[in-house]
NAD-dependent epimerase/dehydratase (Methanosphaerula palustris), 304 residues
Amino acid sequence: MKVVVTGGAGFIGSNLAEELSKKHQVIVLDDLSTGREINLKGLDVEFIKGSITDLSLVNRVFSGVDYVFHEAALPSVQRSVENPVATNEVNIGGTLNVLMAARDQGVKKIMFASSSSVYGDTPTLPKRESMTPAPMSPYAVTKLTGEHYFNVFSSLYGLKMTCLRYFNVFGPRQDPKSQYAAVIPNFITKILNHESPIIHGDGEQTRDFTFIRDVVHANILAMESSSEGIFNIACDRRVSLNVLADQIMEIIGERRELIYDAPRSGDVRDSLADYTLAKEHLNYEPGFTLLQGLEETIQWFRNQ
Ligand SMILES: NC(=O)c1ccc[n+]([C@@H]2O[C@H](COP(=O)([O-])OP(=O)(O)OC[C@H]3O[C@@H](n4cnc5c(N)ncnc54)[C@H](O)[C@@H]3O)[C@@H](O)[C@H]2O)c1
């Protein structure tokens, strides 16, 4: 099969491209705005540098392609709070281009990287796909809009699709350096550098952290499945940031005082998924506990 991973030089996209390249011909389309070419080092993939906001380029890249994994986006709730227009242009405008090209080039199925952020701060846990979304940030709005576009392209044009709502993904290659870095690579690199992790808020906010290899597996299951729809992809356990920091310090074997800073606007308080639908339709089950994922991730960061 010939497959395209948009955003394939990023954290999730490069892990996905690596796994796909073991069996398929893989093309990565990425403008390197948040991704890094080094993520593709040693991988058997074709790299095309360019933006999903360029429709004619996306059409050329998708020509003759069987499956598309649409991972390209400007991620981060915080970035979108600071610059909603940029997030909108890439995550909505770019996603529309990706759908147009997938439709016009006869792509067999397209998988979309959606996000748990679409649920917002509704009190009911765990989050189920039947719940009414309540986005709290421009980023979450763009992901929900992307899902709506996927549904519309499915019903209007018969484009086969699956939207995967990822819950806080972590693992090797996740960027610790960006000012919008996710919490796990941030904490790990701080502690490895003998510095204190900074927590926004009281640290009692909880997340359902999902190991990258489970997310990659879910995408491949979605490609191979005849099922379509919107599915939560998660680990199905939630931990607070305080407990998370404790576990990371335990594995690394170094204790640091935690520094508490002001909470960030747009962040949800608690997040936990019910992945029953993904289990029923895609045969998805998380294969890694938080601890197993953290051990592998910390080992990877130690080797860098
Ligand atoms: N990491 C998570 O916890 C998480 C959770 C939910 C959803 N997601 C979604 O998963 C996808 C991958 O996220 P990630 O964590 O790997 O982030 P990332 O920043 O590492 O990857 C995003 C990639 O998209 C590329 N990109 C950005 N704008 C582009 C454009 N205009 N044209 C082409 N490429 C472009 C970036 O250069 C980068 O390589 C994103 O769509 C993100 O919204 C991530």
